[in-house]
Amino acid sequence: MEHVKHPPAPPTRADGTPNPMLSLMRYKRWADAELMSAVLAHPTLGAAPDAEYVPVIIRHFHTVDCIFKAHLLGLPHAYSSANPAEPAALADLQQQMREVDDWYVEYTLELTEHQLGQALQVKFTDGDQRVLTRSDILLHVSLHGAYHRGNVGVLLQKCGAAPPPDGFASYLSRARDVRTTAP
């Protein structure tokens, strides 16, 4: 008999309704942690060509996460750019990303469909203003991070390292290893 892995059941809210945004934010937290572990484990990254872009890219998408966190909370943020000029140490970024990713997971735990559909006024660092729903913001944060994790993955490959797993299906298979007997 063959063992088959099944994805975990989608997370639900306390009322039993599905919560796909929670699943998405848990995936983002996992993928960000995998990326940081891979980057920090690469001993020769600092000397590799184009390696200086790795912390810049990571800092950028983390900054965007912080900016949108402020928008979701209705608070001002201190960023004048999504690309801060000051350098960032990877170990510091790892801790900061973990904290922000944990916040996004906690934030999405009990968001209702009504709250996800709420429209928020968002001002981008370039001055552009838009109306986005909470759901739009959460999707943007997740997709934006995935795009830039891919950028870093390419740089890791150029440095001779394998990029970490980053796909949603990879996350699901690692999130819960449920085995069942196939017919």
List the helices and strands and how they pair.
Layout: E1 3-6, H1 20-41, H2 53-73, H3 90-108, H4 113-116, E2 119-123, E3 129-133, H5 134-158, H6 168-175, E4 178-181
Antiparallel strand pairs: 1-4, 2-3
Helix pairs in contact: 1-3, 1-5, 2-3, 2-5
Strand order within the widest sheet? Answer: 1-4
Portion of residues within helices: 40-55%
* Strand runs, count: 4
β content, as a range? Answer: 5-15%
Q: Please give the count of helices.
A: 6
Largest sheet: 2 strands, antiparallel
CA radius of gyration is: 18 Å
| SS-derived structural category | mainly alpha
In the CATH hierarchy, the architecture is Up-down Bundle
**How many structural domains can be distinguished in the coordinates?**
1
Mean pLDDT equals: 86
What is the CA–CA distance across the termini? 8 Å
- In CATH, the topology is named Four Helix Bundle (Hemerythrin (Met), subunit A)
Helices and strands, in N-to-C order? EHHHHEEHHE
3D structure, described in words:
By secondary structure, this protein is mostly helical. The protein has one domain: dinb family like domain (Four Helix Bundle (Hemerythrin (Met), subunit A)), CATH 1.20.120.450. The protein is 54% helix and 10% strand. The protein contains 6 helices and 4 strands, in the order βααααββααβ. The strands form 2 sheets. Strands 1-4 form a two-stranded antiparallel sheet. A hairpin with a 5-residue loop joins β2 and β3. The longest helix is centred in the C-terminal third of the chain and has 25 residues. It starts with a strand and ends with a strand.
